[in-house]
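Hey, weird one. I pasted the F-box domain-containing protein sequence into the form twice and got a warning about non-standard characters only the second time. First submission, copied straight from the form history:
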Amino acid sequence: MDIGRPPLRLDTLCDDVLTRIAYHVSTSTVAGPPTDLLSLLLTSKSIHNKISIPGNWKLLADTFRAKFDGEAVQGRFAERWSTDRCLGKELVKRCYMLKRIRRGHPELDGLQQVSEDLWTALLMMLECDEYNRVQLVQWAGIYQYLWQVILWSFATRSFDWFSNSEIPSLVVWLFWMTMDRDDLMREDPQHRLEMQKLLQPFIVASYKYPAFHATDYHQLLPLCPHEMPPPSPPADSTSYQTAPNRPHVRTITHYSHPLTIACPPLTAGALLCSAARSEVNRAIETAAGTGGWRALHPPGEPGQFGMTRAARDAAGQDGATFEDIDDYERGINVRCPGRSTSNDWDELWYRLVGCWDPWDNGGALRGMVYAFGQAAGAWRGMEFVPSQARYLGLLVHEARDPRVPMHRLVREDTVVRKPLYVTLKEHHCLAHEDALDYGDDEWGNDLLNAWLPRGTVLRENEDHLEIYDPVYDRTIRYETLAPGSSSAYLAKSAKQTSTRMEEEDESEYESDPAGAVGEDGEASYIDSEEWEDTVTHSASNVCDIILTGKTERVHGIAWGHFTYVGRVRPWDGLVCLLRRPADPSQARLGNAVFRGYIQGDNFVGHWRDVNTPLGLVGYECGFVMTRDES
């Protein structure tokens, strides 16, 4: 030991070693901002200058990678979105956001800042693989913050929960994306009840709120601006909503680049949140003996509910037995996202960034919005059915006095939930074949016939579907895709990629600390007219998708036999199905058209009657289904 050597001082270390120490200090814990780094920077002025946070993009980027999920940004964007400078600026932006959410006082930030923070949180969940959820749920406590935003809305009227679709949509979807079934089981019963009341108007009066990324009238999108002129450009192109039933569109800063994105459909999030809470509430009440059909049906009372399926079938009767009701009440009819990864949100992501303008094809961020075979298989769930008399009363009241808010007219008992079962098959028209013509006109406007020409005849075979096309008086063949199969013609399924027009010298950014981050943490754009993101798609060999389905016998006897036929809209992956009674003598069951999106293991959307013209509000409500794995 050299006693004469002076002790080694921290500020005498070389910059690289000191930066490495700073990295380990800033990432000593995953959850929360790198607050321990501040203590190191305050050690001395020389250490602060050597680490040089304003321009040390490598340190900030490495810290970002250790605390946030970064795989999604590399797969969804061009390389220039994930430079060290972009990741460093994103780290600072998110740290400010997490601190505001953890503080839990949205009234101190103002509506604009709250909106930006909610967008940042939503994008984090869309990119979440592991760490983002830890930051938002465990460290920041976003669940409590979302309730604070709702309470702030009603206490100060800073925004109207039932008319401002942007913030309610972000709040509802963040509730959905950050919860799992265990979270709902632990949810305060009063909060669960209040949430159902807040969601009820979005479900009952769904025609007033955003449900789809574009009007469901058309099967063929994008629209031609010469034949169907778009609305006048909005006064503020960075934040607008062209119609009450269209999602709000906003241009935000994401990884230091401008990103135009649409809100996820409000009614879909409301249906998922409401259905999940209904299931959890029923499970809790059934376990306690205060809910479920057994609690409502007195023991020993005669009736079909006391029969088994075998006894009912032997008696030649139809209708639900206690076995059918138990199967529905004890089964899983909606799946919470729980620990979903960014791959599970890919289709939703590409719809949000590529399907916000029905007159545009999505640009460089256009990606896969529907995975082949997604719809095929058995589904189970519930349809929300409002009382016809009360629903008509709502429409009449609104027509007479539109000034009365809809939420004041909606009652809790307006909607009942009915079991819904269907098994679907998916049929593909290959690229070298002629596809079935569109219904009604060249834009496929016949929504009430599931975008199919009137007079279409379908005949299912073991491995294909034969279709008679009444428009051209011909027979067409569609290949049937079995669930879980990987047919040879799908080997080149579509894949989104982004490339740069030129090579970029990242060292130019690394050596230029100017404009790093403002005092408020707001990131600036890193963009140039010389750069352009592009997208390359590989052919899928599929030019059209038709779906057929039915209610299996075991469920049809209990809840009604139905057949289904429909189509998938390639622009945004919207599924449209026409449901009809399998037995013509049961016409009383009525026809309905179902439209919705498949998100993960759930299929969520809206049904409506087919007797009301499209120009008028029809009898309609929502539905939620999940894959039947029984």
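That's the output from the first submission. The warning seems to come from a hidden character in my clipboard, not from the data itself. The longest strand covers residues 415-430.
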